[in-house]
Design a protein that fits this description.
The chain has two domains: about 40 residues, no CATH class; about 120 residues, Rhodanese-like domain (Oxidized Rhodanese, domain 1, 3-Layer(aba) Sandwich). Helices cover about 30% and strands about 20% of the residues. The protein is built from six helices and seven strands. The longest helix is centred in the last third of the chain and has 11 residues. The protein starts with 14 loop residues before the first strand and ends in a 9-residue tail after the last helix. InterPro entries: Rhodanese-like_dom, Rhodanese-like_dom_sf. It comes from Kwoniella shandongensis. This is Rhodanese domain-containing protein.
Length: about 180
């Protein structure tokens, strides 16, 4: 376990708690308590000891043509209607960086912004060939969000395998907040 105080604006690595399945980092960011949690148990096979949410996630992913970070980057540069949508909270983007050119839409309003029939949508959602690639931190919440978008008629919606952390690990462009 690490300890230490956080000054205003420090990154989210002030405290780390490890147990059998998770690593939780928490600390202050701009005077707000923030928590990042990473599961260490996602390598379990679905056949043995899987939870209902793991089964649900696997079921929803069956309808997605998920993309790896390199493919997402290439598609975002191709002008084929692909748009990267970053749904991570502001604290995560500030602490870990952001994908250049990604449209920031926090998860709680995603469906309204990307539904082509919504009066609150973004202009890109009304374009022919619109193909959003949803990005979360590790590629779990984004799978569920992408499937909801498909259910709303956004047929080319998908998500990024491994999320932002996989993008960053691949060495793809990342903007850091100063």
């Amino acid at each position: 376990m690490q300890g230490g105080g956080a000054a205003k604006g420090d990154a989210l690595s002030d405290h780390v708690i490890e147990n059998d399945n998770n690593v939780d980092q928490f600390g202050l960011y701009n005077n707000s308590l923030c928590c990042l949690s990473t599961s260490l148990s996602h390598n379990r096979t679905m056949a043995t000891n899987s939870s209902k949410i793991d089964q649900y996630l696997e079921e929803k992913r069956q309808g997605l043509n998920r993309v790896d970070p390199r493919t997402a980057f290439e598609r975002s540069q191709s002008h084929d209607g692909t748009v990267i949508i970053d749904t991570r909270p502001e604290a995560y983007r500030a602490a870990e960086g952001a994908i250049p050119g990604a449209i920031i839409i926090e998860r709680n309003v995603l469906e309204w912004r990307l539904d082509p029939t919504s009066t609150a949508n973004i202009p890109e959602a009304r374009q022919p060939g619109f193909a959003p690639i949803i990005v979360c931190n590790e590629g779990y919440a984004s799978s569920l969000a992408a499937q909801v978008l498909k259910d709303l008629g956004v047929d080319r919606a998908t998500d990024l395998v491994g999320g932002f952390r996989a993008w960053k690990a691949e060495g793809l462009p990342v903007e850091l907040k100063e």
